[in-house]
Design a protein that fits this description.
Number of helices: 8
Oligomer: single chain
Structural class: alpha/beta
CATH superfamily: Spore Coat Polysaccharide Biosynthesis Protein SpsA, Chain A
Largest sheet: 7 strands, mixed
Length: 210
């Protein structure tokens, strides 16, 4: 009974996050906050000489893609890496879920949560996610690369293996297939495969190391 009640409450929150215009039509609120959690030491499967630079380059490409959509908040313990135009928020510790919760706490409307290792991310791809309502983008291994949250209160810190399935069990998230957000970088093979069509910082970095 508790699970049914919890999902009912979540569904009501989502419904309230859509406003009704004077003409009676419903429409989704504009996303005003894009939260990007970032840890520079997360890419441990990349070669040591490339690890930090690749993480910073990908973060820069994701921020550039997100800036046209609204306020970008990078939650990190490394303020030096935050690109111009993004707001720095100190990582509270406790993992990715805690970092995202800290970013969402300062959101004033809807939000996107976007991982920092998505070098193919574009403004258009993020806008498609924004327009999908309560939605997520799942990576090939079942983890979660991005979330669209019309109501940030729906979020729960469910990251880790098979997190996409846990998010869908928690709330009525739609899974959306957005190629630019599905591809993430965990290994050198990923970087080699994605770099030719990645954002400008990631492309330039890879060109220097080949």
């Amino acid at each position: 009974m508790g699970d049914v009640w919890s999902r009912h409450v979540v569904a009501r929150r989502v419904a309230r996050s859509f406003r009704r215009s004077d003409s009676g039509h419903t429409y989704a609120p504009t996303v005003t906050t894009i939260v990007i959690p970032y840890r520079g030491d997360a890419k441990r499967r990349l070669p040591p000489e490339l690890r930090a630079a690749a993480a910073v380059a990908m973060l820069g490409d994701v921020v550039e893609a997100a800036l046209p959509l609204g306020r970008v908040v990078v939650v990190t313990d490394d303020p030096i890496v935050v690109p111009p135009g993004a707001r720095l928020l100190a990582d509270p510790g406790g993992g990715q879920g805690a970092a995202v919760e800290a970013g969402l706490a300062i959101a004033t409307g809807g939000a996107l949560v976007v991982n920092a290792d998505l070098p193919l991310a574009t403004t258009g791809a993020l806008r498609r996610l924004e327009n999908a309502g309560l939605a997520l983008v799942e990576s090939g291994d079942g983890t979660t690369n991005a979330l669209a949250l019309p109501d940030p209160a729906v979020f729960a810190p469910l990251y880790g293996p098979d997190s996409a399935a846990r998010f869908r069990a928690h709330a009525p998230f739609a899974s959306v297939a957005i190629a630019e957000l599905t591809e993430d970088v965990d290994s050198l093979a990923d970087l080699e495969r994605l770099a030719p069509t990645a954002g400008p910082r990631t492309r330039a970095l890879f060109a220097l190391h080949t």
